[in-house]
Design goal:
The protein is mainly α. The chain has helices spanning 2-22, 24-48, 51-75, 77-84, 87-92, 97-126, 137-158, 160-164, 169-183, 195-201, 205-219, 227-258. Helix content is 80%, strand content 0%. It starts with a helix and ends in a 7-residue tail after the last helix.
Length: 265
């Protein structure tokens, strides 16, 4: 039974890979745009002659790119099915929805790593003299993993929007992603935000993940000293992923009952 579900999940990984290969021109265009955006932000640190600011901006740009790619692939799961005209077939297929979403999550993480690695290489080309002698690799890897899984839960909840709102759901997920970018301290400390926005910052897993990666990479802080960032990510991952799966299942049943499970609006 487990082997069957894993094979089914891999089928969705393979299907998403084939989609990326089919639309390789768009993938390349988005990659170039993401790299240009990351470099544009980083050059602010160069202009000010502040090496620490440059590293701060680079880490924010690179890690946010990874999180946003993961978020987009999962949140747009239903939108992709509609674009390809396979929504009804996928939803009626004899596989658990968790199996379907697991395949989307696995591909999102792998694709996000490849995408982010390409941007990191571009950064190295433009800033070859940048030193990371005090970096703590264990801390960086730990927060990459924790940040990934904590973000998955939010992305699963966001994937419900295109399911329930046929015509506007994809736009709503993009708005949510934009809000997360604004409040998560990607390029600046959250303390500069208005008080009410700082409250939202503490509800975003990206706030803790980016802070942990940044402190591990720039300051070499060991992971054992970052429990203030670790426990919120653990709680969000443990709570949001099961809740996201449950909520998606409820939304799917509602969509089927109300006729929203269709290819076009």
């Amino acid at each position: 039974m487990l082997t069957h579900e894993l094979k089914a999940s891999y089928a969705f990984v393979e299907r998403n890979f084939n989609l990326s290969r089919r639309y390789w021109g768009w993938e390349l265009a988005f990659l170039v745009y993401s790299a240009a955006g990351a470099l544009s932000i980083s050059f602010i640190g160069v202009q000010l002659g502040d090496a620490r600011l440059l590293l701060t901006l680079m880490v924010g740009a690179i890690f946010w790119n990874y999180l946003s790619v993961v978020f987009s692939w999962i949140a747009e799961t239903i939108s992709v099915e509609r674009w390809e005209g396979t929504l009804e077939y996928t939803m009626m297929a004899p596989v658990h929805r968790s199996t379907h979403l697991l395949g989307s999550v696995a591909y999102a993480m792998v694709f996000g790593l490849v995408h982010t690695t390409a941007i990191l290489l571009a950064m190295i080309v433009f800033f070859p003299d940048l030193a990371l002698t005090s970096a703590n690799p264990l801390t960086v890897v730990s927060f990459f993993i924790l940040g990934s899984f904590s973000f998955v839960g939010i992305a699963m909840l966001a994937a419900i929007l295109p399911l329930l709102y046929v015509e506007r759901g994809a736009q709503m997920t993009f708005v949510l992603q934009s809000v997360l970018l604004l409040v998560s301290g990607v390029y600046y400390p959250i303390e500069v935000l208005p008080g009410w926005m700082q409250v939202l910052s503490h509800l975003s897993p990206a706030t803790y993940a980016i802070d942990g990666v940044r402190r591990g990479l720039i300051d070499g802080v060991p992971v054992t000293e970052l429990t203030g960032d670790i426990w919120p990510l653990l709680v969000m991952g443990v709570v949001l992923i099961p809740f996201g799966l449950w909520a998606f299942g409820r939304a799917e049943r509602y969509a089927k009952q109300t006729g929203k499970l269709k290819r076009v609006g």
